[in-house]
């Protein structure tokens, strides 16, 4: 995604904790006369478990600033040193050719050890813009028992994560389900990455002559880039939930150096459906860890196109087509999308404050998959 040029209305300036709001007010009172408008649509609280970084906006935050007037409160965990809190304030404005005035993003950076952040959550609360939504973008290890996470959740209208970076994927996905079951509004950048795969699967069975094959599915194969099974589990959870499959068993094995996860289901007509998730070693920087590589849906009883293959254009369809009935397969390729970068995905999430019902329903099914009994 092409980013607009950024003008620092004020470069990062060191301030004391108690001076943050006053410094922002002072900034706008001095710059407003030069055509810089103070406006916000939300507050974005970012937690980053990153140590010893220069206190400047990340490219993702810059991208958000080019699209939305907002206030960013960036909490950066420091693991070394004392408990002191470092604070800076800044303002960044996208330069747009068709506008004579600047609408800018306020940027507050706080750097401290995690325990210090817990003590100053009241300060963070005082910096939130009243009557506007607050988003929490949590980039650390997901831990529902973390005092800091608990406090920040209380301040937020929506929690955003990226499950491609989960340290304990199965445990963390179940924790996301727990958050959603408590009525909290949650979003996952990795869930959004599945949109093209979901759309192509739905489109493959749109033709009237192929709809019968959908109810006759018996085998599902999903390949993903080794490293993180979250996408594969969510895709299978979405498919099983949409088709009303009831998980029966789960078996995890290693075959030919591949980690293979096998599931069985009972469909709505009482038939047994099998599914296989394969972690494929792959060197492809365009695909995030755990990103989907290929999906194969097989309906042997169908007389018309019994197999549907969906694969990444980056890796091709050879492995999926090699599994049989290639000549009778309906094949679709997922093209690399320009909106799959973290900045675009986050921007999409920031436009939505309401609950994602489909995501929540999928998390419920994923929990059932993870805890399915071994045969």
Can you tell me about this structure?
There is one protein chain. The chain has helices at 20-31, 59-67, 114-119, 121-127, 147-154, 169-181, 189-192, 195-204, 208-215, 230-243, 318-321, 342-350, 357-370, and strands at 6-15, 36-37, 43-48, 71-77, 86-94, 102-103, 105-112, 134-138, 158-161, 186-188, 219-225, 246-255, 258-266, 272-280, 292-298, 307-312, 329-334. It is an alpha/beta fold and 375 residues long. Strand 3 (43-48), helix 2 and strand 4 form a beta-alpha-beta unit. The longest helix has 14 residues, at 230-243. 39% of the residues are buried.
Query: Which band does the percent of strand residues land in?
Result: 25-35%
Mean pLDDT: 84
Number of separate structural domains: 2
Q: What is the alpha-carbon Rg in Å?
A: 24 Å
Helix content: 25-40%
Number of DSSP helical runs: 13
Q: Which spans of ≥5 residues are poorly predicted at pLDDT below 50?
A: none
- The order of strands across the largest sheet is 1-5-7-4-3-8-9-10
The strand count comes to 17
């Amino acid at each position: 995604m092409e980013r607009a040029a950024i003008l620092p209305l004020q470069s990062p300036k060191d301030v004391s904790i108690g001076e943050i709001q006053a410094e922002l007010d002072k900034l706008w009172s001095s710059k407003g006369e030069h055509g810089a408008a103070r406006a916000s649509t939300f507050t974005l609280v970012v937690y980053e478990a990153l140590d010893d970084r220069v206190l400047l906006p990340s490219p993702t935050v810059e991208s958000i600033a080019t699209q939305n007037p907002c206030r960013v409160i960036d909490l950066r965990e420091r693991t070394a040193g004392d408990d002191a809190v470092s604070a800076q304030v800044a303002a960044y404005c996208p330069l747009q050719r068709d506008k004579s005035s600047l609408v800018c993003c306020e940027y507050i950076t706080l750097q401290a050890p995690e325990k210090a952040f817990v003590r100053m959550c009241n300060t963070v609360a005082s910096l939130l813009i009243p009557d506007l939504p607050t988003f929490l973008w949590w980039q650390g290890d997901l831990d529902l028992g973390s005092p800091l996470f608990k406090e920040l959740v209380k301040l937020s209208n929506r929690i955003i994560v990226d499950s491609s970076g989960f340290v304990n994927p199965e445990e963390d996905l179940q924790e996301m389900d727990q958050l959603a079951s408590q009525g909290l509004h949650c979003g996952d950048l990795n869930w959004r990455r599945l949109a093209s795969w979901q759309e192509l699967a739905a489109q493959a069975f749109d033709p009237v002559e192929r709809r019968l094959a959908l109810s006759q599915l018996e085998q599902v194969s999903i390949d993903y880039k080794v490293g993180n099974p979250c996408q594969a589990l969510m895709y299978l959870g979405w498919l099983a939930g949409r088709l009303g499959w009831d998980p029966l068993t789960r078996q995890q094995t290693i075959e030919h150096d591949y980690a293979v996860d096998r599931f069985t289901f009972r469909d709505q007509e009482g038939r047994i459906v099998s599914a296989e998730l394969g972690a494929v070693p792959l060197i492809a920087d365009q695909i995030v860890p755990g990103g989907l590589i290929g999906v194969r849906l097989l309906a042997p009883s169908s007389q018309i196109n019994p197999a549907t293959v969906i694969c990444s254009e980056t890796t091709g369809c050879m492995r999926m087509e090699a599994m049989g009935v290639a000549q009778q397969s309906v094949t679709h390729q997922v093209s690399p999308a320009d909106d799959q970068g973290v900045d675009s995905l986050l921007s999409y999430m920031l436009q939505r404050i309401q609950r994602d019902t489909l995501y929540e329903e999928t998390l419920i099914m994923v929990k059932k998959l993870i805890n399915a009994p071994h045969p």
